[in-house]
Amino acid sequence: MRRIPSSLATLTLVCLLTAACGGEQGGTDGAAPTAGPSTGPSTASVLSAASPEETPTEAESSPEAKAAPTTAPAVAPTTAAAPVKAPLTCAHLAEARIGSSKTPYNGYPDYLPLAGGQWSGEDGATVTLQKPCGIGDMDGDGAEDAVGAVAVNSGGSGTFYTLAAWRNSGGLPVFRALTDLGDRTPVVSISVAGRKATVVWLTRSPSRGMAELDIKRTSVFKLSGSTLTEVSHTDAPYNP
């Protein structure tokens, strides 16, 4: 048997080993890349960056996030309260006006302003507000008006009494109407009810002198335009 030289055997073994190594590693053309850590971005991260996950916006909120419509509770209608009329008192008449250009008092062409219940003119006449006064609605507007009396003295013996009405304008007296009662016929009392003024005053019989008062008259007056019209009266004897 022929013996193979050791050198040839060694060379043959190296070739076999080299072929085996080449089969595992392969060449550079068509060889699979060696797996290992990559410094570039991964495929998953690239896809994630290219197609970001959409988040719901306020306009695209899910049906569960929307509030269910509610029905507002019905509000019961309220009735506006009637405006409260400012009160008018007898004390207000002390600063009131008597007469007007349309309804002159005692022949004066314009109103006379009372101050502290009195007015004095350059002609020597003095107008004085009398104490009797009545408060009540005379014209049906729901506000309480005032009815009072004034007396004028021009320096002589005569004192002429006049009944006057003032309407309530926001708690202030505004002259409305008047009617003359006569000379030396003082007013005893005034009351207002049912849009009428009941006035008790003193007067005389036709046969009596001016200073002789023998009748106590109760007259009922109703407001009619710019005058107080007497609708009825009753007389009773008066003995001072």
Structure in words:
- 12% of the residues lie in helices and 35% in strands.
- By secondary structure, it is mainly β.
- It has a domain at 90-237.
- The strands form 3 sheets. The chain has a 5-stranded antiparallel sheet, with no helix packed on it.
- The protein starts with 5 loop residues before the first helix and ends with a strand.
- The model is unreliable at 17-65 (pLDDT under 50).
Instruction: Using the CA coordinates, give the radius of gyration.
Output: 59 Å
- Write the element-wise H/E pattern from the N-terminal end onward: HHEEEEEEEEEEE
Question: Helicity range of the residues?
Answer: 10-25%
Give the overall average pLDDT. 79
- The strand count comes to 11
Question: Mind describing the biggest β-sheet?
Answer: 5 strands, antiparallel
Salient structural properties:
240 residues, mainly beta, five-stranded antiparallel β-sheet, four-stranded antiparallel β-sheet, globular
Secondary-structure map:
Blueprint: H1 6-25, H2 43-50, E1 97-98, E2 112-113, E3 118-120, E4 126-136, E5 145-153, E6 160-169, E7 172-183, E8 187-193, E9 196-203, E10 215-224, E11 227-237
Antiparallel strand pairs: 1-2, 3-4, 4-5, 5-6, 6-7, 8-9, 9-10, 10-11
A few lines on this structure:
The protein has a domain at 90-237.
